[in-house]
Write a structure and sequence with these properties.
alpha+beta
Length: 114
């Protein structure tokens, strides 16, 4: 029983030590862009959450999220905004604020059974 206790204590202490010494610097999310149609939040040095809004009949105005991941002066966009106006705003933000070009767009597709 003592051996089991020491093994568990050792693993817990090792895990806490690794988290304290090896974790990357703490980054607090920052809202870097906000309009009526698009919100962009920087969630790490090179990752941005973009939120646009879809007007639905059943649920009203629904937020839809995507990501922008930057590597040097290129970005990959994961999911596009919900409409052309929001997409134009996102492209303008990427070009003017991130000084980057879009290297790829990776959309997701939801298929319903209808």
């Amino acid at each position: 029983m003592k051996t089991l206790f020491f093994v568990i204590a050792f693993l817990l202490c090792g895990n806490l030590y690794a988290q304290n010494t090896l974790s990357p610097k703490e980054f607090k999310p920052i809202e870097v862009y906000h309009s009526e149609d698009l919100i962009i939040i920087q969630i790490s040095d090179n990752a941005f959450l973009h939120t646009s809004f879809l007007q639905t009949n059943d649920f009203g105005k629904v937020p839809c999220n995507g990501m922008v991941v930057r590597n040097s002066n290129e970005v990959v966009v994961l999911d596009t905004p919900t409409n052309n106006k929001s997409a134009d705003e996102l492209i303008k933000f990427i070009k003017q604020k991130l000084h980057s070009k879009i290297n790829a767009v990776i959309p997701t597709l939801i298929v319903t059974g209808k």
